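Note to self: keep these together.
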Amino acid sequence: QVQLVESGGGLVQAGGSLRLSCAASGRTLSTFIMAWHRQVPGKEREFVALITSDGSTNYADSVKGRFTISRDIAVNTVYLQMNSLKPEDTAVYYCHAARTGGYKYWGQGTQVTVSS
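Structure:
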């Protein structure tokens, strides 16, 4: 079992930055594909970014060049650095962990609000 706890959300003006953290407990993240997703009320949850067990990354087109996903295995934490934030980035951001064998876990989410 893996527990994921997100933090770092908040209110920021357009053009500003935030760094989200996802702290994991229960198992090391080194064997997981870690991802960030986001969801706006009334819409489906959408993919934002992921980092694989070998450190490869992938991003949604809407955040490429502005967001950076990273991880620190020593403290079992994944980060999402968000720069040049736009009002359309407003959402609840969720951390997700997955690995072979059908193991999938979600965090509780953290609210990000970008004002214009």
